[in-house]
Amino acid sequence: MKTTLSLKLALSGLLLSGLITTVVAQTTQDTYLGKIEYQDQTLTKASAAKLNRKIDLQRASQLTLWALPISSFYQSYKAAKKNIGFSDEEVVIGLYEGYDAVYPFITANVTTPYIIAMADLSATGPLIVTIPEGSIFGVANNAWQEPIKEINSGKKERLLFVGPGQEYPKDFKGEIIQNDTFLLLYFYRVLGTDAAAEKLKTAVTSYKLSDADNPPKTRYITYHPKPEDNVVIGTQPIGMEYWELVNEYVQKEPMADRDRFFYAWLRDFGIEKGKPFNPTAYQKEILLEGVKTGMAMAQATAFNKTKAKFASSLYGNDSGWEDAMAGMDPRIDLETYSMFNERTSYTFEAVTTSAGMVSKVAGKGSAYLGSYYDADDNALMGGNNYSLHMEPNPPAALFWSITVYDIANRLIIQNDTRRSDLSSRSEKLVTNSDGSVDLYFGPEAPKGNENNWIQSNKGQSFFVYLRLYGPEQAYFDQTFPMNKIEKIK
Q1: Which domains does the chain have, with CATH numbers?
Q2: Three-state DSSP state, 141
Q3: What does the alpha-carbon distance between residue 434 and residue 453 come to, in Å, rounded to a whole number?
Q4: Contact 437/423 with Cβ under 8 angstroms?
Q5: Residue 312's pLDDT band (boundaries 50, 70, 90)?
Q6: How far apart (Å, rounded) are the C-alpha atoms in residues 367 and 357?
């Protein structure tokens, strides 16, 4: 008893005299997120809070990339309903031809007409679509922009599109196509310019399965926007509108098994099936920061493809041109993985996919090359003047076209001349004696080259697509020389 008391007194004296102290080892680690502090091996409360916020920001940014296809698809549906005027319950087909008509669609082109139908199968029920014989080429996509039916047989077809869980007659005379989302898009083009081709444009019929016994006449609507119209564009919105579209998708559509972890992340931000989306102040703050950074990440992925991620998408060794399809397989879900980088890249700057867009058969399908920077690796800026030398005989069995798009919305450029593209079909295009063509981009027409010029806008950066319809072997072999866009100094 005396010993214990003496020891306690001695220790107390030492502590009071400062000879024994309690030591806490506080250390700092440098990470890509900044400095992280520990007390021995335990994170400080401040560092833990910092990391949890970074986790949320990272996930919101990645969710932005994940949702690019569906947000674009849902926005395109809203735009179509407003612009041509129809309700969810109606079945219509839109005719879009010309500069003003195709403007609302991401990276549309003016050289070919678009015939597009979008439908909500949850409102219409299953749809019957009949394709006549003839040169009709197109595709049907689900809300993830994955092709569920290629339209290119040239033969008469009778199709039944069925939404998730919907009943349909098993003895249907035709092809039954099970869509794994309720939102559906199908579009087609008619090759040729004669009277027969013109007639084919409105020869497709579409009606509800419930009307099969007495099909109504298919309603075609030609889109001719007026100057005073409030045109709704199909580009993914930014800000909270983006997440409202994502929530709309989550509430309406079944969840794909591949997306279970993404749904867990969405739940952390207030988006959960069967529940209202009322984000807290913190959730809203994270979502707004996430979509802002996520869209920047999407542009970095799409417009700055690297050999590490997109080895097959860079045309030539240093041409300045990239495959806009990003080497994507439109099926997305492959045997050992589902494509993410490729899907992000393509759906940031374009909409809808088909097998024909990635065909490797010479003379068939189409090819898309994009250029986003000039020969000095600077942005293509609307206040500068540029030139592009197209070598003779571009490898296109049908024709080629060059189109200019604004970066902000990825839509055909709006300018005073109301011209966003030039092509080998352009009547006044000036060709050099050797068959090459010099093209010009800038705010003012180069004297003597007005017919080969597309006007840009000061303060608005842009990018350029080269489309090859019926790409030939020189494209696939990458032996046709592509030149960089040069700034005129």
Answers
A1: 71-222 (2.60.40.1610), 302-487 (2.60.120.600)
A2: strand
A3: 20
A4: no
A5: confident
A6: 6
349: left (phi over 0), alpha (psi -120 to 50) or beta: alpha
pTM passes above 0.90:
yes
Distance from C-alpha of 328 to C-alpha of 235, rounded to nearest angstrom: 20
C-alpha dist (Å) from residue 447 to 216, 417, 431, 444: 55, 15, 16, 9
Interatomic CA distance for residues 485 and 462, integer angstroms: 12
| 3-state secondary structure at position 474 | helix
Q: Is the pLDDT of residue 202 over 80?
A: yes
Chain centroid to CA 405: how far?
Answer: 14
d(CA 309, CA 265) in angstroms, rounded, equals 25
Helix (H) or strand (E) holding 200: helix 195-200
For residues 278 and 22, which has the higher predicted lDDT (pLDDT)? 278
pLDDT (tens digit per residue) in 344-377: 999 999 999 998 888 888 988 889 999 999 999 9
Residue range 53-71: mean pLDDT, rounded: 98
Given pLDDT bands bounded at 50, 70 and 90, which one contains residue 192?
confident
- Which helix (DSSP H) or strand (DSSP E) does residue 60 occupy? helix 45-66
Cα–Cα distance list, 211 to 127, 128, 218 (Å): 9, 9, 12
End-to-end Cα separation, the chain, in angstroms: 97
Q: What angle do CA 86, 88, 89 make, to 5 degrees?
A: 95
Q: What angle do CA 421, 425, 429 make, to 5 degrees?
A: 70
Q: pLDDT, tens digit, for every residue of 87-138? A: 999 999 999 999 999 999 999 989 888 999 999 999 999 999 999 999 899 9
